[in-house]
Amino acid sequence: MQTIKNGEFLLLRLNKTLLSAVLAAFVLIAAGISAVGCKSVNIAVEEVNPLDLIDSRSAFYMRIPKAVDSNLISRMIQNNIHGLSEGDARKISERIDTVYLGMKKSKKSVDFQIASSCSFPRIAVSSAFSKKNGWTSDRLALEGSDKNDVSYTVYNNSGLLASFPSEKIALIGRSVPDMVERYHYISQNLEFEDSFSLDDDIYEWLSYEEGFYDGQIRFYATKPQSFLTTLIGANLNFKLMYVKGFLENDMDNKNQYVAQLEFEFRDPRVVGAAKAMLEVAFGLTDSSVKRISDTHLIVSEIKIDKRQLYKILVL
């Protein structure tokens, strides 16, 4: 089996300067937690799944649970903040549980949306996302279930938006006010017009049952042709509907992930050729590339070097 060493595998090149501003604020939050304590007012609201706040306007979606690789999020944080110690990066990552990412890429930029489950006290957030640290803020007031307004804060740093509608959820990137509104309506158990919710198949693929060990990094590409071109390194027109897959730890090698990819084709006539090409591209046996329907292939047992994935995700 071949280990993938393609530096563009997941297309995750976010705007490093702006992302660094958010991560720098996270450092201040982590520092402020021990200084200000964790006292907060408990408000009776419905629990909200961060995945419910991601919209359908991205071309690539990903779920990164800390449980898969505790070093991964820590490395992402440390690499994007100059002078941050490994210990401080670990303190921040310990307060981040699962990151959900939606992204679409153009020739000039990457447009991204992040909703993360976390644990950041409100008072520490307010201190970190301050004007002194380069952030401005706006209030978003929405009517609650008791007819009284509920106020949320949306932070802005050179066009990058962030918000913490609760101590358990962090929102960053595109359409943060819309994400806050979705959070509000769900948490207040209010009806609302939902025109940008994720497709059911994507939502189901990125979900996992609460209380169970979440041992997979999962991704879903809704515009898979460019995904496949980057993955294989050649422009191949296979008329794909989607590509989805997961990475999990290799139990035989702590320095590797094992990946599985699923390809759904529009035209069953190209599937045979695609199967042969994928076997060669990944150096796999016939048993590792299975055709399970006229239009669907599953490619399994792909080895991915963790160091290579770190290089991609730490930006």
Strand and helix layout:
Elements: E1 3-4, H1 16-36, E2 60-65, H2 70-79, H3 86-93, E3 96-105, E4 110-118, H4 122-128, E5 136-143, E6 149-157, E7 160-166, E8 169-173, H5 176-187, H6 200-206, E9 217-221, H7 224-232, E10 240-249, E11 256-265, H8 271-282, E12 289-293, E13 296-305, H9 306-313
Parallel strand pairs: 1-13
Antiparallel strand pairs: 2-3, 2-9, 3-4, 4-8, 5-6, 6-7, 7-8, 9-10, 10-11, 11-13, 12-13
Helix pairs in contact: 1-3, 1-4, 2-3
Features:
13 strands; alpha+beta; about 325 residues
Report the helical percentage.
25-40%
Mean pLDDT: 80
* Low-confidence residue ranges: 4-15, 34-44
Number of helices: 9
**Number of strand elements:** 13
Q: Which structural class best describes the helix and strand composition? A: alpha+beta
Q: Please tell me what the overall shape is.
A: globular
Q: How can the largest sheet be summarized? A: 13 strands, mixed
Instruction: State the end-to-end CA separation.
Output: 27 Å
Measured by DSSP, the beta-strand proportion falls in 25-35%
CA-based gyration radius: 21 Å
Element pattern in H and E: EHEHHEEHEEEEHHEHEEHEEH
Could you walk me through the main structural features you see in this protein, from its secondary elements to its overall organization?
By secondary structure, the protein is α+β, with helices and mostly antiparallel strands. 30% of the residues lie in helices and 30% in strands. The chain contains nine helices and 13 strands. The chain has helices spanning 16-36, 70-79, 86-93, 122-128, 176-187, 200-206, 224-232, 271-282, 306-313; strands at 3-4, 60-65, 96-105, 110-118, 136-143, 149-157, 160-166, 169-173, 217-221, 240-249, 256-265, 289-293, 296-305. Strands 1, 2, 3, 4, 5, 6, 7, 8, 9, 10, 11, 12 and 13 form a 13-stranded mixed beta sheet that branches. α1 (16-36) crosses α3, α1 packs across α4 (122-128) and α2 (70-79) packs across α3 (86-93). The longest helix has 21 residues, at 16-36. The radius of gyration is 21 Å and the shape is globular. It starts with a strand and ends with a helix.
